[in-house]
Amino acid sequence: MKRTLAVSDIHGCVDEFKQLLDKVIFNAEEDQLVLLGDYVDRGPQSRETVEFVMHLVREKGAIALKGNHDQRFVDVLGDVDSLTEMKFFEHGGIQTFKSFCGSEELDLKQSKERIRAKFSDHISFLNNLPYYHEDETHIYVHAGLNPTFSDWKTQPERDFLWIRAPFVQQRTVVKKTVVFGHTPAKDIHGKADVWFDRDKIGIDGGCAYGLQINCLEIKGRNQYKTYSVASKGSWR
To answer: Calcineurin-like phosphoesterase domain: which residues (predicted)?
Structure first.
């Protein structure tokens, strides 16, 4: 039976991500890899992570969704307000700019211009990622589904990227199980392991916080197996 492999919140931890794919013996011919967003920020190798994800999508048939950090990185490269910039750099953006610019000394204006000029393909890739993926048995999304929308596909784009408590703490209004990242599993049930609820599964292992990166293996409707690789460090 074909496997679906779901991974979320890589956050620049590309070495751990590659180790995880080796651990699950990922085979693009047999497996469907679904990545739930947040490829940049906090961890040390955002650029390398984006490039590897681009390779997986373009050469290995992976499905990559957009995360809130990916969107904010794209936004910051445009003309944004100072508050958006401040939040970006407070939440791991410095590491992202260093990864893309290869420099310890960061002049914001010059760095933006350099990234826009040299990495336009990367930025376009991130900007055009979808907000969700759906198959016969599951819905995959970065942050979650707003339970106040009976037609979840019509919810605001921001909810796909940012929603937390209203989704995590309430029952969904869909029949399929929702697989999500964004909210670290440790914040939900006190440990970094994948969190299973009746109608949703949280897989963010908090790798960039020094915990682990998780993979959820899905076979059919409800056959699950989990894998994890420990983080090499913490980049809060």
So the answer is: 3-193
